[in-house]
């Protein structure tokens, strides 16, 4: 092969224009068979299922060490810990994150319909386990508002605000809050078991089915649910927790019916908190490059609100709802309730998936930013064990909050040492100074939660962008958002996932097939509708399939191909076989005679076409000319009233460059279609086929006397060169040119004819001649 590259420099007037490059390649024309003959492949042994099983259960010292390091990532990064460079940043980050975690633990616990102090447990126990098992160095593990809301939905369904709780063994003798804590911890335990099982089975890839678009729509709807759930605290109303489809609508109805009972003190406190926190957070965002650490305005306002509430006795004087008694220390471990597992399995699975998906997405962002790797399966194991361990101590499902993780990373946190220190801060509050938060109004927590929803609610701005760029993604966003808004978060997630999978299936089942043409003067082939300077050899069609071929789209592929070539090969084949059958009968009766110029009708009257439909299966077989002295020219005039659709092409090229797999149904359908085309005398070529698909075709006995492996070519241009060598384009004759010129030299239309013929002749020699190639 000769490969040469040339570069043309630009003129002085075009000094800013990049130099134009050209390459010239001289090589043989290759089909797949000829390429395989000239270039020997390396044999690679492929492992069988038994080999994989043996390898999975094989254990040696190296693998044992690798497994230990993968199950305990803390060993790996602690070895590389830079004490002098990282410790101070981790301490500052740990203290800052711990203060935020205390506040968010109290606030997000309200979403789960639990007493506030249980949020402190969720900000402590899962963090300890993740320190040892997690692979991300920057996320802050703990309560996540969407998960809290999903747990709250299960809690209020089993233990409603009004009316009796579900008849569950183990509820006897427990207060309503204790029953709710048991439900929340049992759901968390079950979600943790599911996460651990997925991690052990190495199915962390399932989170990839939750696209960014789906998660965006889902979290937007979750933000609306969170906003509505906090209105009762902001307005100081008593609103019972409602779960299930349309719960949001029913909650808003109750709030509007009770709006006249609003506590003005709660409203004023909430407005002041929201305005101040919003302004300072905007300042943090605008001047984040100049501020050493973000101003912890939520913590500051919480401390001020606690002091003011205690000093002026808001609970007694204005009747506002406060956090109340916070017990010191931790409670004894509790076993989950198996009966609750049966009642909440449907809620636990989306909790497990959403919790992991959010945490993994955030962890991936920080891993890319700080150049280290995270393991999805190990993350599942880490969160699974964290939730199982935490649930035993009455915490609820943990993931990561975006704002809390941002604080941990932006304040200088380098490793999970910062997370461990934040857990220490939470522990200090729980064991020693929790009583200071008892006068804190719940409206303050509600206001803080609402302000932090800004980022999620602003995702509505994505709708116009998605509609302009990708309408299918926009539909997924709207479906997941509206589904979660109306049906609840668990069913809404299922709706969004279903619509997303349907959109993928539809895009694969109904791909955009196209006819290609040569860009003149090049070996490049593009959609013929998109370019002007194209060359299409007469009698040749190039059809591109931009998707896998499988059971769901093989019929669509066939219909599109029939539409592209302009005829149905099976119908043409049947018409031809009917015509041959009729011609054979007429020849025997003497009504037709074979002459040197073709068939001649020797009967006086018209010949009626036979309607004999017997042996229909024979009509699908190759046309049989064994009794005829020559083959019938189907594009010529046939005698009497015998009519057969004309086939205007002699070659069809199928571009398989984008075909990634071919299942058995697709294989059978493709083989039947190729046979039909070959039987109507159309030469079929398949180009750029994936080697594994070609190997599968051989293994499945795809080839026979009609469908042969010689139809496969290495590239599209190789096939086109072969076709033009086999079916050369007719060269306009000089005599034809002179004839047209002489007969039309005195009229205007004739001048156009002369110019057209001249252009076509010049075009042929200039731009088509390069295709006339003879393989060595």
Descriptive notes:
There is one protein chain. The chain has 776 residues and is of the alpha/beta class. 56% of the residues lie in helices and 7% in strands. The chain is elongated. Pfam families: STAS, Sulfate_transp. It is a multi-pass membrane protein.
Topology of helices and strands:
Elements: E1 2-8, E2 20-26, H1 32-38, H2 49-57, H3 61-71, H4 73-79, H5 83-111, H6 118-122, H7 125-133, E3 141-142, H8 145-158, H9 176-200, H10 212-235, H11 247-257, H12 264-286, H13 297-312, H14 314-318, H15 338-370, H16 376-392, E4 399-400, H17 402-410, H18 417-433, H19 442-451, H20 454-457, H21 462-469, H22 471-487, H23 489-509, E5 514-519, E6 525-527, E7 534-535, E8 540-544, H24 554-565, H25 569-589, E9 592-595, E10 598-601, E11 651-655, H26 664-679, E12 683-687, H27 691-699, E13 712-713, H28 716-726, H29 734-743, H30 748-768
Helix pairs in contact: 3-4, 5-8, 5-17, 5-18, 5-19, 7-16, 7-18, 8-9, 8-15, 9-15, 9-16, 10-11, 10-19, 10-22, 10-23, 12-13, 12-19, 21-22, 22-23, 29-30
